[in-house]
Write a structure and sequence with these properties.
globular; single chain; 28% helix; binds zinc ion; alpha+beta
């Protein structure tokens, strides 16, 4: 069950409480709502001060979505879960548009401008592209926000896809890929990465892949990683116990590619990812013990505990510290979408780069700004009703409110009450896990169920 965060009168985090207890605190007047997202209460007086139970925040960074979970290591309870959607693509698009406008301006016949030299910043060490920077900043922002409302004493982050050291002289034993040991999962991640998550023979993607011996074991082929590849079921059964040279006799270029790729060990660089390392450095700077996990271990933890695939479930399974029993039932993940803080462009332009609108109006109108969550209770006129949603302010004081049902135009600011000030993110409720009465088989058969992760990791 997702819990509700509680602060004491000094705004220090206390143990999160059950929603029922939160309702009781609110209705008895002992607490007030401090914040909507994440939902946080503040106590009005000094009540009993129970021992604060330490919690661990766990992060599974992704390129589009990052999973976040707060877990109680001793009880295995998931206290809070969230899925944070980044805006990397949006940033890239905006930068490209700006570049286009500037380029066209330079090529027009305009008045002479003196060349300006050395007007570029030198890229500092640790610089990463703006779209990647925003992903790192999103995660750090949310870790800090949660640390302010929840007693967090430890962090776990998925840092790499598989354990490079464990791969050094890896040799897969039959048992490892049939019974799903931790080593087996690291190996799978390694192979997926090495063979670009596709069938080596027909390049099919997004289908279950099987581990395939290039030189068949029936003919004395070894279990070393340099002798295995990934194949779809059709190719695997078609090849059977043939030698790869016989199987690919008609496709010499495919044969050459496979033989070369099999011999080349995966470079460190392919497994190491700058964004995740940048995130690691920033999280470490927060001064809380930080544990690192691998993608192989996350998958192993998730599958052995019979948990479905979701970003927040993956986050709860990151690292060696994952409790034996994770209690995920009833947890509703908070869906957080990064929306940015608007644009800095002074006015909109037409396709030739000329101003199309007047200069920007004031950002705040009657104490509201675009993006605030408001509740409007309209008591007169044709629009009588209650509307809750995101407001778009107009200088006239007549706002538009985007609710779940649609946009309502022309609501006076007089009817609006702010629920949550615009903070660069929008929010929604995710789906809880489907209750699964019977646990599925703990260990998957020797196929690689990799349909889940279509998006590339950051
Ligand atoms: Zn195939």
């Amino acid at each position: 069950m997702s819990k509700v965060f509680v602060l004491d009168t000094q705004k220090q985090p206390l143990n999160p409480v059950h929603p029922g207890r939160a309702r009781m605190l609110l209705s008895s007047g002992k607490a007030a709502v401090f914040k909507r997202y994440p939902f946080t209460l503040i106590l009005k007086g000094r009540g009993e001060q129970p021992q604060v139970a330490p919690l661990r925040i766990k992060i599974d960074p992704g390129s589009k979505t990052t999973g976040i979970a707060i877990v109680n290591d001793t009880s295995g309870e998931v206290v809070f879960a969230a899925e944070l959607s980044h805006r990397g693509q949006e940033i890239k698009k905006r930068l490209e548009r700006r570049r286009g406008v500037r380029r066209s301006r330079r090529q027009r016949h305009t008045r002479y401008r003196k060349p300006r030299f050395e007007n570029r910043h030198n890229k500092q060490r640790g610089w990463i592209a703006p779209s990647l920077e925003s992903r790192v900043c999103n995660v750090v922002t949310w870790v800090q926000r949660l640390m302010r409302v929840c007693p967090i004493v430890a962090m776990s982050q998925e840092l790499v896809k598989f354990d490079m050291q464990a791969m050094e002289q890896a040799e897969i034993k039959g048992i490892e890929y049939q019974q799903g040991t931790l080593q087996g999962y690291e190996t799978r991640e390694y192979l997926l990465e090495k063979w670009n998550r596709m069938c080596a023979y027909c390049s099919a993607k997004d289908i279950p892949l099987q581990i395939e011996h290039i030189h068949p074991r029936a003919k004395g082929g070894s279990d070393r990683l340099s002798n295995v590849t990934l194949a779809c079921e059709a190719c695997n059964s078609k090849k059977g116990t043939q030698d790869v040279r016989a199987f690919l006799a008609t496709k010499p270029d495919v044969l050459r590619r496979i033989l070369a790729q099999a011999q080349a060990p995966l470079k460190d660089a392919a497994a190491v990812n700058t964004t995740r390392w940048a995130l690691y450095e920033r999280l470490k700077a927060l001064g809380i013990p930080l544990e690192c996990g691998t993608g192989g271990r996350t998958k192993y933890n998730r599958v052995t505990r019979g948990i479905e695939k979701a970003h927040w479930c993956d986050a709860a399974c990151v690292g060696a510290s994952t409790p034996e029993h994770l209690h995920l039932s009833g947890v509703v993940p908070l869906l957080i979408t990064a929306d940015g803080h608007g644009s800095r462009q002074m006015c909109l332009m037409d396709k030739h780069g000329f101003p199309r609108t007047g200069p920007k109006q004031a950002k705040h109108v009657q104490g509201f700004q675009t993006g605030d969550m408001v509740c409007a209770i309209v008591t007169r006129g044709t629009k009588i009703g209650t509307y809750v949603g995101r407001v778009a302010v107009r200088a006239t004081g007549s706002f538009n409110i985007t609710t779940k049902q649609g946009t309502i135009q022309g609501i006076s600011h007089r009817y609006c009450t702010a629920l949550h000030t615009c903070d660069g993110y929008s929010y929604g409720q995710g789906e809880p896990l489907h209750p699964s009465p019977e646990k599925e088989c703990l260990f998957p058969p020797p196929v690689l169920p990799d349909r889940g992760r279509k998006e590339a990791e950051v």
